[in-house]
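Narrative of accomplishments. A recurring question from our advisory board has been how the design workflow behaves on a single, concrete structure rather than in aggregate. To address it, we present the structure tokens for one chain from the evaluation set, followed by the sequence designed for it. No filtering or post-editing was applied between the two.
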């Protein structure tokens, strides 16, 4: 499906107005960032860049698109003619997918003709907000499993096909091991997993017959769903009978899945029964509306679980279903010069950061694998061995610091220049590995699920001074 019309009506209204009142080649720069992490966390894992680049690189309006816009009787003919010839003339710099990103930091910055970058707002936000949200939720869940695999099972509960497909990819970036979504598996080269539902069991005269039928067809993939009738008195005993038959035929069972009931107690009883029967390697998978807090509780209780299948609470991030990323102008070209722009608010934390910026992650000079802070700077600033900085968190008491003894790594990379894309990582598991490496470098306190410590993010003095100057000028 083409997505050029996937935007809000006011974007087209503004673009039409720009065409009537401003030079058609007037350049603008917009930043994508967020102010508050979901689930009261401290960061978001960036995701969605691959799709953004693909959409922007191939951005154009079809004859049918133009005909529909004309039918609205809202736009001038010369603006619509402009759109017929419109193709991507934008450039993007972005933080790589899989990077933990903190509030106020530009995840992506796009520059190009004002008309074009305005029309791309909704589509870019839609992609980045959704995929970053799901990647972050997946990290929250996988971070508490102690390395046990988490399978993404959410397609049937996702808010539409695209949410299911790209949500599965984002879930892998965040740490999941596989997906039940076959189309996502095909598109992004992911492991596709899944065995049976309760309907399989109910389609046979009894549970044992259903298990035997499955084992006959899939002797090396015998993961049996044991909670259709009674886990302890029926499901597990019947599974063990089939496991013995499989072993006698030279096959080893995969294990069982429990999808309802008191999972901790049922898994404990099932483990004991399978161990006593000689199937100590048979795995127990838990599913059924799980999330990070439930999984942690199960494991803290000692539940002998080996894998998890997570559906709705992952693919919808149901506990915190919105990442409110925004798209704000940071600079506008005027007579060949870039002029920084700002959005003022009565709330200090909603005042935007003007100008063309770069984000640096600072690492301890004596321990280069340990990140200590981020600094948002103007792009043309030279980062030396010492930085006079202002805390970006407006709520802190002591906001001025001198940063020393660090190694600075720039995070924003040029990924698209006038329609030509730079090489970026597209292998989903390579991005997952990158994310895990980046996460390992953050302080443990910043990764707590409950009451995480705030990772320090600073503004350079020059950027802070520019922001204050524009605020003062707006108030005159």
């Amino acid at each position: 499906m083409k997505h050029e019309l996937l935007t809000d009506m006011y974007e087209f209204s503004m673009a039409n107005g720009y065409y009537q009142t401003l030079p058609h080649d007037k350049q603008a720069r917009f930043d994508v960032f967020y102010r508050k992490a979901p689930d009261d966390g401290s960061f978001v894992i960036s995701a969605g860049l691959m799709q953004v680049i693909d959409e922007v690189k191939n951005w154009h309006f079809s004859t049918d698109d133009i005909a529909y816009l004309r039918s609205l009787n809202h736009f001038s003919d010369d603006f619509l003619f402009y759109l017929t010839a419109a193709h991507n003339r934008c450039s993007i710099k972005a933080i790589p997918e899989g990077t933990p990103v903190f509030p106020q930091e530009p995840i992506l910055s796009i520059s190009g003709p004002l008309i074009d970058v305005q029309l791309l707002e909704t589509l870019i936000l839609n992609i980045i907000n959704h995929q970053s949200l799901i990647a972050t939720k997946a990290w929250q869940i996988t971070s508490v499993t102690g390395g046990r695999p988490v399978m993404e099972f959410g397609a049937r509960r996702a808010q539409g096909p695209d949410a299911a497909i790209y949500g599965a990819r984002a879930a892998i970036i965040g740490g999941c091991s596989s997906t039940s979504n076959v189309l996502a598996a095909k598109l992004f080269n992911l492991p596709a997993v899944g065995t049976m539902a309760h309907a399989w069991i109910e389609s046979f005269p009894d549970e044992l017959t259903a298990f035997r039928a499955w084992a006959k067809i899939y002797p090396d993939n015998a993961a049996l769903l044991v909670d259709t009738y009674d886990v302890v008195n029926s499901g597990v005993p019947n599974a063990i009978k089939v496991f013995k038959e499989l072993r006698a035929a030279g096959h080893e069972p995969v294990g069982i899945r429990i999808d309802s009931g008191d999972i901790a107690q049922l898994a404990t009883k099932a483990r004991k029964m399978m161990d006593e029967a000689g199937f100590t390697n048979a795995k127990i998978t838990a599913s059924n509306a799980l999330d990070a807090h439930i999984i942690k509780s199960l494991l803290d209780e000692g539940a002998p679980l080996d894998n998890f299948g997570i559906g709705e609470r992952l693919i919808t991030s149901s506990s915190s279903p919105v990442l409110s990323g925004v798209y704000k102008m940071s600079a506008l070209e005027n007579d060949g010069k870039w002029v920084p722009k700002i959005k003022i608010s009565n709330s200090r934390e909603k005042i935007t950061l003007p100008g063309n910026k770069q984000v640096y992650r600072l690492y301890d000079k004596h321990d280069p694998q340990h990140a200590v802070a981020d600094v948002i700077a103007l792009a043309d600033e030279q980062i030396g061995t010492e930085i006079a900085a202002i805390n970006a968190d407006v709520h802190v008491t002591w906001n001025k610091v001198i940063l020393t003894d660090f190694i600075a790594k720039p995070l924003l990379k040029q990924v698209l220049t006038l329609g030509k894309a730079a090489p970026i990582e597209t292998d989903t598991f390579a991005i997952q590995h990158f994310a895990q490496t980046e996460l390992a470098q953050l302080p443990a306190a910043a990764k707590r699920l409950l009451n995480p410590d705030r990772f320090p993010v600073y503004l350079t003095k020059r950027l802070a001074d520019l922001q204050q100057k524009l605020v003062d000028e707006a108030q005159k």
